[in-house]
Amino acid sequence: MRYGPGMRGPIEHDDFYEGIARQVVEQRSLRRLSQRELADLCGTTQSAIARFESGSRPPKLDTLLRIAAALDCELDVTFRPRTRPTKESR
Question: Which keywords does this Swiss-Prot/TrEMBL entry list (predicted)?
């Protein structure tokens, strides 16, 4: 975990990208696509898809948009306030 500039808490980016990778694998599997077929559909390489799905390299936003389009899915990014523990739960 690391801290962003001016932030009081950690950036949980590993969990974030792992969650996205799981969704991509699930959607790809539902469509019975291989990594190579997905790569061909979104204009990248099979090894790039494999690295992303394994968590070894997070994709850029434009790559996520191409993957979503290839899977006929919407990419949804939401900013929400963090939940903070109440005094009673500390």
Answer: DNA-binding, Transcription, Transcription regulation
84 band by pLDDT with thresholds 50, 70 and 90: confident
> What's the CATH number for 12-72?
1.10.260.40
Residues 6+ apart with CB under 8 A from 15: none
Q: Answer yes or no: are the C-beta atoms of 8 and 81 closer than 8 Å.
A: no
Q: Give 20-56 pLDDT, tens digit per residue.
A: 999 999 999 999 999 999 999 999 999 999 999 998 8
